[in-house]
Sequence to fold (331 residues):
Amino acid sequence: MPALQIFARPVSLIKKRPLTVMAILLVIAILLFMSVNVTGNWSFILSLRGKKLLALMTVGFAIGTSTLLFQTLTHNPILTPALLGFDSLYVLIKSLMVFFLGAVGMASIPTLGKFGFEVIIMLGLSLVMFRTLFGRHSQDLTRLILVGVVFGLLFRSLSFLVARMIDPEEFVTIQSVSYAGFNTINIQVLSVGMVLCAICALLMYRMRHKLDILLLGRLPAINLGINYTRLTLGVLAMIALLVAVSTAMVGPVTFFGLLVCALTNAISPSMHHGKRLLLVSLIAMLCLVAGQMIFEHLLKMAGVLEVVIELVGGLAFLWIIFHQYQKQATR
Fold:
């Protein structure tokens, strides 16, 4: 019992003031990330680590908020954009660009122009796919999951097919975006990614009350005066943008969004999106910054953060499914 009492007070404090606690922990993690094992020229190291820190925080914000928005839309805590294959769609777009333009052609296009083109294509295809999945039969969750998983497998299979048809040297370009990597973050799109995330954050803040109503379901939202179709399309566009930003910077990450949303749902005292969106952003940033600091500066790259995140996120996914089935069985 004494051992349990040691942990009881911190857990109680986290549940009472989760935003304050997570903000303090994030500041501590940032200070450690920027200062641990620093030797030599401070200006160079701070510049190098500063860019990586901003990239990790941008990716954390994009994955955490996009997953929470997606769960609000689907009213299900086990669904993520990655689980339904939306990051695979981005990889497929990238693969087709390499197939048609070649590695030399891809290299000749300015990075920002290339990223902008990929985001526009991603937005268009995502909206078409979302409209297909969330049509009249959107209440059929089993059908939704099955169709989404099939789409994800289809996109991955097409990406592998394209990879086999191209030159081996060009294959390296596709391979670099096909797997998650927090050690090799694409810093070139950082500025655009931060701007897109800032715009999405502003839009989320303005529609936070509508998101609360959206959580009630389609018919209650319509009865309360919400333009459901317009709001849904706006949320879907934001999700597609955020998924494109995170995938362009670190590659596809399947279970990280699910993990941080599960932690948010566990400790959040409120269901209001104004607080939950901020909390999930802080938790996601904290996990990435603290995790990368531990693996990069304390463990000397003895492991990779993405493997641990996918393992823990996968276990969280199984636990949530088991817990839901257990609740249904006891009713």
